[in-house]
C-alpha cells in the first residue's frame, strides 16, 4: 500500500487555509494535512467581531469580485467551492470621497488606483500637468523595468495627482507611500501597459480596457454574517488537523522531507512531514529558512511591513453623508488615513435602532510612533477628526473597539517581484517540497492570498510526484 503523504501548512490565515483546501481537493486520498497556527484563532487578518450587539469586521472587510486577468476572482471561486455563494452581498453605496483642503470632495471616476485615465475628471481635486506626458517615441518602461508608482506618475502628471489621489488610494490599501511602492507589484496591469505604451494616459486607458466590467457589475463583495464564515468553512472543508497556539520554531530538511520543531523552547515537539507550505509573513519565514537557505532567507527578510490600527465606533443616529467613506492624503495632517461608514456602505448591516458603525484606519508607514497612543486616546482622536472632516460634532460613541495589526501590510519596493522570483527559484531547485505563499510575496487582498496558497498546494502535489485528482 502506498505511503500517505504528510503535508504541513505553517500559517492559518486565508493563504494557508486555501492551500489546505486545494490539497484536500487535489492531493491523493488519505493525505494528512496539518495546519499550524501561532495564535489562538485561524483567519489571520480576517476577523469578524461584535460591537454594540452587531457584527463588524475587525480586519479585511471585502474581496474583489473579478480577477484583473478576467473571470471571477480566486476568492469568489473559493466561496463557491465552500457553498457560501448565496451569502455574498455587495455595497449599497459605492461613492467615496477625498479630504482635500479640509473638505470632502467625491473621488473622481475614471482612475486606476487614483491614476487618471481622463485628466478633466480629476480637476476638482488635483491639477495635472498634461504637457509632461508627451510621447517620446518609446514605451514608458523597459521590458523588465520596475519603478515606484510615485516616480512614474509625478514625472507624467505632477505632484498634486500623486499627493491628492494616488498616495491616499495606495495608503488606504498598503499604508505606504506612492514614492516607495513598486508599480509592478501594486499596479501590475498598469505596469504591463507601460511596457508597450508611450504615454501614461494611454497606458492607464489600456489597463482599464483590459479589466473592463459589465455595466452595473459589482466590484466588491463580502459575506453576510462576516468573513470569519469563510475561515470556518475553509478549515472544515480542508479536513486538516488544526493546531492553534502552535508556533513552528524550527524547520530542518531531512532525507525524506522536513522536520518541524513546534511549541515552547523548553519542551519542543518534533514532527516529520513530506512537504511544507510556508504561509507566514516574510520575516518569520526568513527565520525558519536561515538554517539551510541563508541567501534565500536574506532576500526574503528584506521585506518591511507597516503597522495599522482600526478604530471602530458605534454612534447613535449620527448625521452621516451618503458615502461609503473617505480617504485622507497625508498632506492634510490628520491621524486618520481612511474611514468607512459601515452601516451606510453595507446595507445588510443597517440597524433599525439608528446606530451607525464607523471605522477609521490609523497608521502610515514610517509614522508608527502615532500608534503608541493608548486605545482610549486613539478613539478620542478618531472621534475628533471625524467630527472635523464632517464639519459637525458627532454624538459620543456608545461602544468602541481598537484592533491593532502590528507588521500587517507589506511594503513592496521596486524590484520586489524579481526578488521573490529569485528566492522561489533558488528554494525550488534545492528544496522542491517547500513552498512560500502569502501576501509577503504575491500582493495583498483576499483573492491574491487565496491564489497564492492554491498555487503553492499545486506545486507541492507536483513535487511529491502526483498529478493531482
From TrEMBL:
<comment type="similarity">
    <text>Belongs to the protoporphyrinogen/coproporphyrinogen oxidase family. Coproporphyrinogen III oxidase subfamily.</text>
</comment>
<dbReference type="GO" id="GO:0006783">
    <property type="term" value="P:heme biosynthetic process"/>
</dbReference>
<protein>
    <recommendedName>
        <fullName>Coproporphyrinogen III oxidase</fullName>
        <ecNumber>1.3.3.15</ecNumber>
    </recommendedName>
</protein>
<dbReference type="Pfam" id="PF01593">
    <property type="entry name" value="Amino_oxidase"/>
</dbReference>
<keyword id="KW-0274">FAD</keyword>
<comment type="function">
    <text>Involved in coproporphyrin-dependent heme b biosynthesis. Catalyzes the oxidation of coproporphyrinogen III to coproporphyrin III.</text>
</comment>
<keyword id="KW-0963">Cytoplasm</keyword>
<keyword id="KW-0560">Oxidoreductase</keyword>
<keyword id="KW-0285">Flavoprotein</keyword>
<dbReference type="InterPro" id="IPR050464">
    <property type="entry name" value="Zeta_carotene_desat/Oxidored"/>
</dbReference>
<feature type="domain" description="Amine oxidase">
    <location>
        <begin position="14"/>
        <end position="461"/>
    </location>
</feature>
<dbReference type="GO" id="GO:0004729">
    <property type="term" value="F:oxygen-dependent protoporphyrinogen oxidase activity"/>
</dbReference>
<dbReference type="InterPro" id="IPR036188">
    <property type="entry name" value="FAD/NAD-bd_sf"/>
</dbReference>
<dbReference type="GO" id="GO:0005737">
    <property type="term" value="C:cytoplasm"/>
</dbReference>
<dbReference type="InterPro" id="IPR002937">
    <property type="entry name" value="Amino_oxidase"/>
</dbReference>
<dbReference type="InterPro" id="IPR004572">
    <property type="entry name" value="Protoporphyrinogen_oxidase"/>
</dbReference>
<keyword id="KW-0350">Heme biosynthesis</keyword>
<comment type="pathway">
    <text>Porphyrin-containing compound metabolism; protoheme biosynthesis.</text>
</comment>
Amino acid at each position: 500500500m502506498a505511503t500517505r503523504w504528510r503535508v504541513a501548512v505553517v500559517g492559518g490565515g486565508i493563504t494557508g487555509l486555501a492551500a489546505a483546501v486545494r490539497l484536500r481537493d487535489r492531493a491523493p486520498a488519505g493525505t494528512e494535512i496539518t495546519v499550524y497556527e501561532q495564535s489562538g484563532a485561524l483567519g489571520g487578518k480576517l476577523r469578524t467581531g461584535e460591537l454594540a450587539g452587531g457584527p463588524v469586521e475587525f480586519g479585511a472587510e471585502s474581496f474583489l469580485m473579478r480577477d484583473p486577468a478576467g473571470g471571477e476572482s480566486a476568492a469568489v471561486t473559493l466561496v463557491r467551492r465552500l457553498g457560501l455563494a448565496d451569502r455574498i452581498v455587495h455595497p449599497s453605496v459605492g461613492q467615496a470621497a477625498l479630504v482635500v483642503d479640509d473638505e470632502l470632495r467625491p473621488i473622481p471616476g475614471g482612475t486606476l488606483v487614483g491614476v487618471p485615465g481622463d485628466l478633466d475628471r480629476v480637476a476638482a481635486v488635483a491639477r495635472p500637468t498634461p504637457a509632461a506626458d508627451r510621447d517620446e517615441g518609446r514605451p514608458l518602461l523597459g521590458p523588465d523595468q520596475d519603478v515606484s508608482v510615485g516616480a512614474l506618475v509625478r514625472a507624467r502628471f505632477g505632484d498634486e495627482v500623486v499627493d491628492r489621489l494616488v498616495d491616499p488610494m495606495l495608503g488606504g490599501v498598503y499604508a505606504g507611500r506612492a514614492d516607495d511602492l513598486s508599480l509592478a507589484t501594486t499596479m501590475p496591469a498598469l505596469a504591463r501597459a507601460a511596457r508597450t505604451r508611450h504615454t501614461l494616459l494611454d497606458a492607464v486607458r489600456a489597463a482599464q480596457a483590459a479589466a473592463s466590467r459589465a455595466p452595473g457589475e459589482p466590484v466588491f463583495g463580502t459575506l453576510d454574517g462576516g468573513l470569519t464564515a469563510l475561515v470556518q468553512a475553509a478549515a472544515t472543508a480542508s479536513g486538516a488537523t488544526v493546531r492553534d497556539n502552535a508556533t513552528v520554531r524550527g524547520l530542518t530538511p531531512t532525507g525524506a522531507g522536513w522536520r518541524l520543531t513546534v511549541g515552547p523552547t523548553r519542551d519542543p515537539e518534533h514532527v516529520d512531514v513530506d512537504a511544507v507550505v510556508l504561509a507566514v509573513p516574510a520575516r518569520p519565514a526568513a527565520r525558519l529558512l536561515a538554517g539551510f537557505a541563508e541567501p534565500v532567507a536574506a532576500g526574503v527578510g528584506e521585506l518591511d511591513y507597516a503597522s495599522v490600527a482600526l478604530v471602530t465606533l458605534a454612534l447613535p443616529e449620527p448625521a452621516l453623508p451618503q458615502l461609503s467613506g473617505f480617504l485622507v492624503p497625508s498632506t492634510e495632517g490628520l491621524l486618520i488615513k481612511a474611514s468607512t461608514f459601515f452601516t451606510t456602505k453595507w446595507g445588510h448591516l443597517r440597524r433599525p435602532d439608528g446606530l451607525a458603525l464607523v471605522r477609521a484606519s490609523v497608521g502610515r508607514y514610517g509614522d508608527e510612533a502615532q500608534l503608541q497612543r493608548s486605545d482610549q486616546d486613539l478613539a478620542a482622536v478618531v472621534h475628533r477628526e471625524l467630527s472635523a472632516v464632517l464639519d459637525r460634532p458627532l454624538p459620543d460613541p456608545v461602544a468602541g473597539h481598537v484592533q491593532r495589526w502590528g507588521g500587517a501590510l507589506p511594503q513592496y519596493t521596486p524590484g520586489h517581484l524579481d526578488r521573490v522570483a529569485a528566492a522561489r527559484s533558488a528554494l525550488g531547485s534545492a528544496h522542491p517540497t517547500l513552498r512560500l505563499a502569502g501576501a509577503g510575496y504575491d500582493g495583498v487582498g483576499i483573492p491574491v492570498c487565496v491564489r497564492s496558497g492554491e498555487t503553492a498546494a499545486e506545486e507541492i502535489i507536483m513535487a511529491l510526484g502526483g498529478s493531482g485528482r
